[in-house]
């Protein structure tokens, strides 16, 4: 059975190779090849899942060793896969949601002449993401880790002729590289500490190492997680990543890749458990990001950017939970899975809205769309209810558990983290209600709009191919798009409840992550009650502001906070001033220094020996050839003399 | 007496060079084919060397030894260890691609131009460089090595000075002046390095009484040849200086950007991917073996210089406006990694450095040759003259992207393995230096992806709108390099298996063992 593991990765990898090398002759069928291979991988996943379920809870780890990758003295990296409950959960999420989004893209990208390539990249992403979660050592994980980064780069910049897309892609990759530095250093630290970086020995011997080293490893892993999962301070790339086609935003920048940081932390649980300082930093990063993302989400008029803020915020919840240790690991992953359903569903819904609205993304130009897109409205609505934590839906179960766990951390920390999580729940309810109301309710603001000016071209250039530039005629999307939306909506509604009945999810993951209940100062009922109050407040304020009053077509100036939030809380301004400008000055002065100082000093020093600089200067006056020949004569003489020595 | 296989690997391209030069002027194409066939035959010989080489066997294999200048104890001694085999294979592998990529680089210019471009000469010079580089990798006699280390400057000088890019913004006159400047700068820097080394070679002879690497190293190891500390240090510096110029190490690097920007792309590859490797190779073979104590004495300084090269080279690459200069500074950064790996004195560092030499050769060839194809289409080296190329030439853009990704050491491609080995090998002994060097991976992403973005993405610039995509010949050059980059990224074991035993020997030469992990139980 373990031989199937490699096939999980091989199927989409084959798809990527065939689609990217195959060329134009595959244009007609490329999207179906991609979808088929993604589904094949999902089927393998289901077979393996059935196999795992048939085993005892403590015997659910399958290993497959393929070959030795890098053997150098004490440094040994193998291509070995590990399938256990944690990676199995990810495999099903990745291939399941991935296949649905492949299917959706068949319709969404129908008019794009480079659709085949798009599916090649999607397949490449699946292969890399599966490698990431199936690797049995950190170096192999690193390959998947940067592999998904590459796929993300290629897909954000899919419409490369748009400078904004190309810039966003590059930004995502480079910001992620800062995180990858953390992963590199973490692996190096593991190697000096344990002499290996395979999961088994590192995690089972973690407690033998000093706390200082474990804290350092933990913080470096956190840096990596911050990059991939868009957590503060490496969050700035995610909003720009919305330049990619919407299915990409759904799959990579919402459901799967951006949660890799959470996977990394939970997988390395043994390291973090023994490094409380690192854990504390993890929870702080999570709490800060969940508020940061939520605030940004409130201020965006671009539907995708509002959802991106929300993604950041929800992953903040997961990171917070992962930082809590064994109390939180299971719920971090559970929220990750339910979020995978409802956030992918929300993005696909947003894509469907854009599809029917000439690729308009500005919610101020939506309104009243529920009549025109009933399926989109219902599926998006269910995703909305799930994310705000409406009782009985998926998000309710997973988020509530995280808030509970945050309080259960105990002490002042527990109160602070718990309050942040509650506050986040209220803000989530606010911004998601805002999105819902601005899009599907109220006045039909898209009527009698001036046509888009050329200065503000469509975010999704597919519109140019569709030749739609007149007033939008909102319409429901084709079945190939609505079926995945319906499937995800079902998951958004039922997954949380299904996981929670009899603590199914807890018992499934417990053997890997461990679990402890902690000691909460608040009863579970009190936490749920507080969450409900927050929810009602959030929804209520949003209703008063966007439901009762008409939405202005142009955003009002807003408060200082609103304006800052629109600019992503000035993160880019900071980066621009400090890093970009500073960097430009640095490189420019270094170019000058290299040209004049280093070159000059070395030439000048050499002049003492052989009149080098004088010769070079005269050279520029045009006596090049004669000097070259004279120098060259010297060299030739040297060689001739040496050879002559033989005769002596 | 058995067949002198190592001599043959050098004699074949040397004879090929003479034969190519002798082809009559009118039969230009025949000369090109001849050169290509000779380089392919050399590759076959190199593969035979690889196959015959037994990684578990003696340190130097396929040895040849003949008396040469008996009075001075100079012998014609050849022999290869795993490190030399890897670099020999790299050289023999890259030359056919260099020849094929430069197929039209030396065609006569349009009628009316005064410039003389001897096609035969171009290809003969490339083969001559190949022969000399190969013998430098094989020589186990210090004097023999020195001669070819220096002699390869001659054909390189003509290649840089005689054959620039076909078009030039400031006209042919200015281009010619700049080319000569670059060629002379290259020659002077390397000659100065070589002269200092010559003094050290003579000094070594007065101390040791012969030039044999194996004999001197043996005598050094078992204590029969004593060197005063100061003598050893001076001799070490003499050798190291020459190799640091060639490698090139900061602050002796400034000849490289000039040389690479002025020469044609294939010649630029020849410089950085092949010729410069002799410098780093010689550090491993000569500096560490002959002067182990002095090497350790100089290590801190060299590590800092290597670290400066990594960061400084990368920062300067970010600031370049000229595509070829950018690649040159990227190479300076990469040579910093190689030297860091060598002097970290760990198995991972040195195996990584050797693997790095091979991988850097392939990845730079991939990036630079595609850049050359791009430049030949538009007639400009300036990044700002391009934009949106991916729309009109998607295959060219795609291969350029893969070359860029290899240059930034993307996991899954060959350079990642070697770069990580160097970093981890440095980190185990010098954590702070290892961490600072890691910043290089962020900067590498910056300079490669900014280059890709500016040249390939965005709206199509009018000047590139009619740019044709890669032709069959160009695809034949690029595709195998890309396959190799992927293969060695996934399965580097064939190379590491050859290199590891030689690195173990070198480690014992300098009496160094790898640091032990803190928690040994985990292994």
From TrEMBL, chain A:
Stretches assigned to the NADH:quinone oxidoreductase/Mrp antiporter transmembrane domain: 135-421
One annotated Gene Ontology cellular component of this protein: endomembrane system
GO MF term (any one): NADH dehydrogenase activity
Domain of life of the source: Bacteria
NCBIfam families associated with the record: NDH_I_L (TIGR01974), PRK06590.1 (NF005141)
Taxonomic lineage: Bacteria, Bacillati, Actinomycetota, Actinomycetes, Kitasatosporales
Transmembrane segments: 29-50, 87-106, 118-135, 181-202, 214-234, 246-266, 278-299, 372-394, 414-437, 483-502, 522-544, 627-645
Membrane topology type: Multi-pass membrane protein
Annotated compartments: Endomembrane system; Membrane
Keywords of the record: Membrane, Transmembrane, Transmembrane helix
Domain (NADH-Ubiquinone oxidoreductase (complex I) chain 5 N-terminal): residue spans on this chain: 69-119
Main location: membrane
Region described as Disordered: spans on this chain: 448-477
Encoding gene, per UniProt annotation: nuoL
Keyword Protein transport: no
UniProt keyword Membrane present: yes
Entries under Gene3D superfamilies matching the protein: 1.20.5.2700
Pfam families (UniProt xref): Proton_antipo_M, Proton_antipo_N
Biological-process GO terms, alphabetical: ATP synthesis coupled electron transport; electron transport coupled proton transport
Protein name in UniProt: NADH-quinone oxidoreductase subunit L
